Amino acid sequence: MKRPTTTRPTSTRPSAARRIAPALAALLALALPARAAERPVRIGVLNDMSGPYADYQGQGSVIAAQLAIEDFGAGAGRPVELVSADHQNKTDIGAAIARRWYDQDGVDLIVDVPNSAVALAVANLAREKNKVFIGSGAGTAELTGRQCSPNTVHWTYDTWSLGHGLAKALVAQGARSWFFLTADYTFGKDLEGSAAEEVKAAGGSLKGAARHPLGSSDFSSFLLQAQASGADVIGLANAGDDTSNALKQAAEFGIAPGQRLAGLILNITNMPSLGLKATQGVYILTPYYWDLTDGTRAFARRYAERHPRHAMPNDMQAGVYSAVEHYLKVLAGVKEAGDGRAVVAAMKALPTDDPIFGPGEIRADGRKVHPMYLLATKTPAESRGGWDYFKPVRTVPAGEAWRPLADGGCPLVKG
């Protein structure tokens, strides 16, 4: 016999799930602002990882950024993440990476960017997207000149400082006639132009210039032109492997000591493959050398421990650390890390100070200013071996080292 079906009255009390839902919603409402505040800040290191500047920046700049995040990331008030990519010294590739990072990947800051043409493209994108760009590996002084931006800071060096500073020092020593061997793109031309301007202003003369493609391996024809000019100085307006290859071949040709070689952007990264014998009498101008102070040595030791070849950092790699440190210092006081103009304004308002460059400031045009140092290569007898290649000759004060603020043509500079 079929049992009768009993229908139970529906309870008027809410189920447990329905009772919990409003409380859960309230908790989520309270939690969402905290979660939003904890959106990771993303920093992108964009540089040459495989070409002629791979040793100059490359993985070394990534290591420097990692060290800065470890040291100062906790003070930023939110998690900090790091990404990196190879722009291959191609403007279209660099711009495409930067656009994807800014638009899709949540990158707030792009740092480093050697190759001036790529740097100018990234600076334009940072302004368009209201993000931050810090050019620690970029050279062109146009970043703080007519193409300056409220979203860009130019950190470590520039073509004006290196060209004018080194030319001024050598002309004062009697090296009055110059021939330039120049990388045939924005950076090299800017560097040559700055040095040539200083040579002419000091009453010197220009004997000519030879332009070479980026990433050249054979400099023989260019060096023969330079040698035939009879110039006192052959100014190498290039960088990275181009500078190293030119100096090696100049030594093979026996150009020095009859003519002086000026590596306008030679630094510690070039030296292991060159050695001191091939670089005797060479002067450089730089804002950082690993063996200047206790602070520079301490950073260099930490960096070398991380580096796969235990290399010492150059000025541009040290500049990545310094730039990221200052960026992270200001983030805690900025409401939205994604507001690039506000972040850069805060960076300009806070004086800079670190063991790498010492006290400094960021000017209205975005130029980070600090002292520069004139160094000379040591003799083999003076060197202790290892990475001991240079000795200090003169400190160039910050007020003398950089283009005057009023001379750059930056629209951000008033009056």
UniProtKB/TrEMBL annotation:
The keyword Nucleotide-binding does not apply. Residues 1-36 form the signal peptide. The keyword Hydrolase does not apply. Keywords: Amino-acid transport, Signal, Transport. Residues 40-376 form the Leucine-binding protein domain. PANTHER family: LEUCINE-SPECIFIC-BINDING PROTEIN, PERIPLASMIC BINDING PROTEIN OF ABC TRANSPORTER FOR NATURAL AMINO ACIDS. Belongs to the leucine-binding protein family. This is Leucine-binding protein domain-containing protein. It comes from Methylobacterium crusticola. The lineage of its organism: Bacteria, Pseudomonadati, Pseudomonadota, Alphaproteobacteria, Hyphomicrobiales.
